[in-house]
Amino acid sequence: MVSVIGTGEMAKAIVSGIRNLGEKIRVVGRDEEKLHEFNEEFGVEAAKLKSYNIQDQTVILCIKPSALKDVANQLQGEAKVLISILAGTPLRKLTIIPAKYYIRAMPNIGARKKASMTTLTGDEGGKERAIELFEELGKTLWVESERALDIATAIAGSGPAFLALVAEALVDGGVYAGLKREEALFLTQGLFESFSALKEEPALIKNQVMSPNGTTSRGYKALEDKAVRSAFMEAVIKAFERTQE
Predict the structure, then answer these.
(1) CA 105 to CA 61: how far, in whole Å?
(2) Under a CB-based contact definition with an 8 Å cutoff, are residues 46 and 38 in contact?
């Protein structure tokens, strides 16, 4: 049994992915209307949070960090594996909910399309189970410390917003130069798809595209003049620092 506690968008993405495993899934929450929606859309069981028994279950916490204590007070029993997607909430704080093994998982917005880059860490006893579940949402990376997970969050978790900024700028640049917006958007979306398919070191890709005094080298020089590389490095560092506050 997998119990997903929470009824938000990430809970939907998780349920949509893991139901392919053929396991019994139950969504747990307060809002009866949202629980009904889960039942209708995904064909999973629904249960009210109050006095819900998690004994020997795999539990995936998809709630707001501020709600942790309140949710813990309403649960009964001891979970086999407790997996939390709560940002900035360390393993030690999760022990407020009894469980044999504790795992932190940080999926990203790509989970909606089963294309998440999920980073995980925690107790070795729960590692295999957590990876099994989150591989249904995309790729997974197991790291050996919470610090590493928080750094990964700054890249893979916040990264979609950073890349959205790049995409928006490319589209606007194309429009400024003379393309229709829908054409610039189509090209940019195709660019991201083709880039992700290359799976090479970024520097190698750059070197293959940039020719002497060509169009790419002219544009690349403009980016370096504006310290774009440094700005993105700083964005990752600041996002990581925020997880430590």
Answers:
(1) 10
(2) yes
- Rounded-to-integer distance, Cα 37 and Cα 42, Å: 8
Indicate the burial class of 202 (C-beta count within 10 angstroms; 0-12, 13-18, 19 or more).
exposed
Interior/surface letters 151-170, b for 16+ CB within 10 angstroms, e for the rest: bbbbbbbbbeebeeeebeeb
Name the phi and psi angles at 118, rounded to 5: -105, 125
Q: For tokens 């932190």, name the residue.
A: 104
pLDDT in tens, 135-179: 999 999 999 999 999 999 999 999 999 999 999 999 999 999 999
The helix (H) or strand (E) run that includes residue 190 is helix 181-198
What are the tokens at 23? Answer: 């396991």
pTM (predicted TM-score):
0.90
* DSSP strand pairing (2-5 vs 52-53): unpaired
Amino acid at site 197 = A
Q: What string of pLDDT tens digits covers the 245 residues of the chain?
A: 999 999 999 999 999 999 988 899 999 999 999 999 999 999 999 999 999 999 999 999 999 999 999 999 999 999 999 999 998 899 999 999 999 999 999 999 999 899 999 999 999 999 999 999 999 999 999 999 999 999 999 999 999 999 999 999 999 999 999 999 999 999 999 999 999 999 999 999 999 999 999 999 999 999 999 999 999 999 999 999 998 88
Question: Which candidate, 62, 67, 47, places its Cα nearest to that of 14?
Answer: 62
Q: Is 186 exposed, middle or buried (0-12, 13-18, 19+ CB in 10 A)?
A: middle
